[in-house]
Amino acid sequence: MGTTPEDTEWSYYELSYWAGLGYGWPYRMWNILSDFGKHYMITPTHYMSTVTSLVYKVSEGYSLEETIRGITTGSTVSDAMANITKADTGQVLMVTATANGDTLAVDGLLSNNDTLTVISSNGENMTKYILEVTDEGLNGDALLTSSTYTIDVSTQPDGATLGEATISGFDYSADLKDVVDGVTLPAGASMSMIDDRGSYVTFTTLTFDTTYIDVKVNDKIFFEVIAENGVTGILYQLTPDIEDGALFVTSNIYEIDQDNMIIGLVPKTIGLKSFLSYLIPSPGATIKVQDKAGFDRTSGFVADDDRIIVTSADGETSIVYYLSKLETNQQLFLAYIRSDIYAISQIDFLIDGVPENATVEDFMANVVLAPEATMAIIDDSGNERTTGMLANTDRVVVTSGDGSLEVSYSFGTFVVGVKQINVVDIQLYPNPSDGRLNIRGLEAGQAVHVYNAYGARVVDQEATGDIEVVSISNHPSGVYMIVVLDDAGQVIGKYKAVKY
To answer: Does 2.60.40.1930 match the CATH number of domain 427-499?
Structure first.
């Protein structure tokens, strides 16, 4: 401490001082803090009798039975001392041979159980380290083992380069903690859980409604295992089991209702980048946000009536999620229709599979509106229709319950000759099922399309014989529409299947 600014390490001046020199706000506030951090404490080490190492494993403590592990056979005292860091430069270090108790010279060879004695620079404290000297030094094994899961190493570690591996044998509903408990680390190795951006992952996380939940596994989580030697390492990617072509989004922050395609617990005001950072698409899929007019949102805040579109890697299939935001007593108003009979695309707002002789009454009886929404069928002159045969130029206009959102659906090509479901002799069994369907009565070359309740095609499969097995096991419970097409692409049958 000093008595003048010149001989003082750190000075503090009040607001009045800086104001008197002509500094206005906020500069006079900044100047108060401008000297903070210049003064620091030099840690006293004169009493310390411990050492550390970046190469060896050194136990912590001041006892006479500490350990230093990782010294290899053939090392001299000089070799070992080059890899040991003193806590204080004034420490005195000497190595005693376990065989006869003699002090070893700097060129003396080390043996297992020799003792390193460290005396503090003030001469008051002493620590003894038992040296472990082996042929292999520290363990270089970074390979996880498991009796529960499948571990596949694709790339072996090479020096400072991490090897690569995968862990499978669990699905997307598994807790991360359970997977960690199901693997065994090699002796001395350490493991960190990280995501694809290198951030640490925890077992639990806090949602936006201030509730702690268990973190679920996904393919963006990795186990980074570093062997005891600190050099050898393997990066394990978690690969939950998933059926080919499955399309969905998951999150450890939001609440995902896969049946109704709703992403819940979303903050009332959240930026696009932050919102997307908490969503995890199925492998290979992409996510984008569209506003109610169908334009891609590229910046700004996510609106209440935005749609989240998840598209498969090949770009052929997309599904739509809607938002439910966090706000007290706030009802979610949406505008959409879905059907167990027709194929309705929520991306293009196109309705397919309507028979050519369908009436307005038939159509309305076979669609389900969003809660509180209303629907009107409008002809090409802008007039509302309540009866009669549907025309291909008609539009279906759906309005949300609060009137803030309006969506217009168009009709695709009407289906010729399909007057009702099950027009050909095709059998589905078991129905209801757990997701595995047998379809009998097909011919090779015919196509089987499966649509969910929102009109998204989730299966596109070509028949190879009389019986075809179709799986929707990885999709939510609900009603699905099975559409069979001939080799010319014409619809020859439409069926309902229920997954429990």
So the answer is: yes
